[in-house]
Design goal:
2 domains; Aspartate Aminotransferase, domain 2; 11% strand; Aspartate Aminotransferase, domain 1; 5-stranded parallel β-sheet; single chain; alpha/beta
């Protein structure tokens, strides 16, 4: 794809991602031709559960009583106080409202954080596979992304991180529960990372930040979310209510609603049930994958090396939309979201079986 006037960097990114757009375009064509109910779309991680009734009530109250006007750049004091108290209780550490900023989603928070800490050519380590936009976020502020692989079970590879650290390292993005794999980091693994980064700080005389990205933190199934504040002393916590309360941005009305709520926690059970159903179907079909313990993604191995061809085959033959792992920096895998209607998951059982059998002989 070539568009006159675009920068070389944007043009290159568009070209690298052209096969993803081709898959999405194929999905749109299939839905138009056969009807959306005949297409099994597991490609997008779009929250499917309704937000709590308490949020809807608070939002209505905010609409009736909210005032029109500018607010403090960091956000409404009452919203920051509510979030700071919520996080302090979760992590058993004192988080001040003064150090809490309401941003336009987790993506906005990461961009603000990276702009705040990066000087040109300083490095940020990205753990592969990773959310595709991380690389662009770092490059937005003239930083340099350094790709470092996770282990085969998608934990932090401490030795690999050690080898990726240089005197220019300024940060490392940790995402748990993880997109695209659904894995949840252990406290032990995070503690090992913290000890390594502390040693590197002392050795290189350079501050290193953990940017702890946890927008799926309320969607954890029988596991404990690791506490970054126990593991390390220089943490920027990044989160979002988009996966649980049901909005992405932080306009003032949403902040007023957050401030009015008694409890910011939500029930993850609707997603856990979908996870269990999806896992059962994939296992029965024969796919290999790490058990997703949080979020709403699964990241199975492709039965063939070329996972892009595999995903295109799934779309064209079975009208099944899944996403190649190359878009997350990990070829040979594919991502699917179980944040879809339960009936869609149930109806996909025979399709996943047939898909796997196409490549099993």
């Amino acid at each position: 794809m070539t568009v006159a006037g675009l920068s070389r960097e944007v043009t290159q990114n568009l070209e690298k991602g052209s096969w993803i757009r081709k898959l999405f375009d194929e999905g749109a064509r299939l839905k138009k031709e056969f009807g959306a109910d005949k297409v099994f779309d597991f490609s997008i991680g779009n929250p499917v559960a309704e937000p709590p009734e308490t949020f809807k009530k608070a939002l209505c109250e905010a609409a009736e009583t909210g005032r029109h006007g500018y607010i403090q750049n960091q956000g409404l004091p009452e919203a920051r106080e509510k979030v700071a108290r919520f996080l302090s209780e979760r992590f058993q550490t004192e988080i001040s409202p003064r150090h809490t900023v309401m941003t336009v989603g987790a993506g906005g928070a990461l961009n603000v954080a990276l702009k705040s800490i990066l000087n040109p050519e300083e490095e940020v380590i990205l753990l592969s596979p990773y959310f595709a936009e991380y690389k662009a976020y770092v490059e937005n502020y003239r930083g340099r992304p350094v790709i470092c692989p996770l282990t085969d079970s998608f934990e932090i590879d401490i030795e690999a991180v050690k080898g990726a650290i240089t005197p220019r390292t300024k940060g490392l993005i940790v995402n748990t529960p993880h997109n695209p794999t659904g894995t949840v980091l252990s406290q032990k693994n995070l503690n090992e990372l913290g000890a390594l980064l502390k040693e590197a700080e002392e050795r290189n005389g350079q501050s290193i930040f953990i940017l702890f990205d946890e927008p799926y933190s309320q969607l954890i199934y029988g596991e404990e979310q690791a506490n970054p504040f126990q593991a390390y002393h220089r943490v920027i916590l990044v989160s979002s209510f988009s996966k649980d309360l049901g909005f992405v941005n932080a306009p003032v009305m949403m902040q007023r609603a957050v401030a009015k709520m008694d409890d910011l926690s939500i029930d993850a059970e609707p997603y856990r049930k979908r996870r269990d159903l999806m896992v059962d179907i994939l296992t029965e079909a024969g796919f290999e994958f790490e058990m997703p313990k949080g979020g709403f993604f699964v990241f199975p191995k492709s039965p063939i090396e070329d996972e892009v061809a595999f995903c295109m085959h799934a779309a064209q033959k079975y009208k099944l939309l899944i996403v190649p792992g190359s878009g997350f920096g990990k070829s040979g895998y594919f991502r699917l979201s179980f944040s879809v209607p339960s009936e869609q998951i149930r109806q996909s059982r025979d399709i996943f079986k047939a898909l796997y059998q196409d490549f099993s002989s």
